[in-house]
Amino acid sequence: MEGFEYLQKELDEMKDKGVFRPLTALESDQGSKVTINGKEVIQLSSNNYLGLTTHESLRQAALKAVEDFGAGTGSVRTIAGTFSMHEDFERRLAKFKHTEAALVFQSGFTANVGVLSSILTKEDVVISDELNHASIIDGIRLTKAGRRIYKHSDMQDLEQALQETQSYRKRLVVTDGVFSMDGDIAPLPEIVELCEKYDALVMVDDAHASGVLGANGRGTVDHFGLNGRVHIQVGTLSKAIGVLGGYIASTQTVRDYLIHKARPFLFSTSHPPAVTAACHAAIDVLEDEPELIDRLWENTRFFKEGLQSLGYETGKSETPITPVMIGDEAACMKFSDALFEEGVYAQGIAYPTVAKGNARIRTIVTARHTKEELEQALDAFEKVGRKLNILS
Ligand SMILES: *Cc1c(COP(=O)(O)O)cnc(C)c1O
Predict the structure, then answer these.
(1) What are the phi and psi torsion angles at 126 (to 5°)?
(2) What is the Cα–Cα distance from 28 to 163, expressed in whole angstroms?
(3) Spatial separation of the C-alpha atoms in residues 364 and 161, rounded to whole Å
(4) Rounded to two decimals, what is the model's pTM?
(5) Ligand 1, residues at Cβ distance < 6 Å
(6) Contact (Cβ atoms closer than 8 angstroms) between residue 185 and residue 318
(7) What's residue 353's pLDDT?
């Protein structure tokens, strides 16, 4: 069909530059090893931190929910698509997060868009870290509130932003808890202190901290001992939790308001029973099997130290997200392809996901990886690094 030549032209230019990436399809489940193009490789690119995507408790909960309640819900939450299991799970989540209430959205992406687009008006302003996730940026695009972007985790710039915005009715400071491309943790204690000093609200997006940081994976707020001092926590059920969804954990007022005003919540169908049941089982696993989180961190330390002693630059990561900095976009993609040949799947991340010239191989180890698998992966990194002259 004709009409899209202008798009094809842009795609062809991307191919010339070596940055066009077809989708990679897994032919196996999301384990520590996966099958891609018929080849078994070590998976270093998933967000399946605790291996919960294939955990037996989650599988059984999902199967039982399908048996008892079917495959779908047939409605949005606000009309006929709220099942008691949705509300049971939200009460469970709120209790787990030590907040008054929680509300589940279809994804972390729509949770951010739903909250940010609905709770602020043109009398208000949102103050956002420059490296916040795309879903925060899109949520901000949809609000009529004023915007001020502060330099990444720069508390001087944040304070200046708070001083400059005192004429607004409400100020909402929003930050990722863990930054998804560099793996650094937001300086939340300082952010909370500044917000208390200037009477601003704080919102933390804990997508990469849920199941990873804090007691039993409660997130950065718990990690820093800030329970009760952060107004809105956003979490995802799609990463360490192993299923799909996003949620806000906040007050009853915020929950009630979002039910009436958050458009992704109002106009998109609720989670199928299997999703909700599996998510509920995952929270139980976080509480019952804390050793999974211990193993995740053990593996993280082992792999990070291994990369560093090979001579790789791993940026400022403090979490299982460990970037291997390459720089040039095309070189990075070549590196990723060569790793695949050596039995390792680690996707290259380039502009526009990260700044130009900052391309990197982004790795995440999981609790499920064995020491042997991680050693094998490090060998591959060494071999490819020497072959492509990235290691001297
Ligand atoms: C992944 C991610 C999201 C989106 O979560 P999904 O549940 O995958 O939609 C939101 N915020 C941050 C910081 C993320 O890393």
Answers:
(1) -110, 135
(2) 53
(3) 34
(4) 0.96
(5) 107-109, 112, 133, 135, 176, 180, 205, 207-208, 236, 238, 246
(6) yes
(7) 84
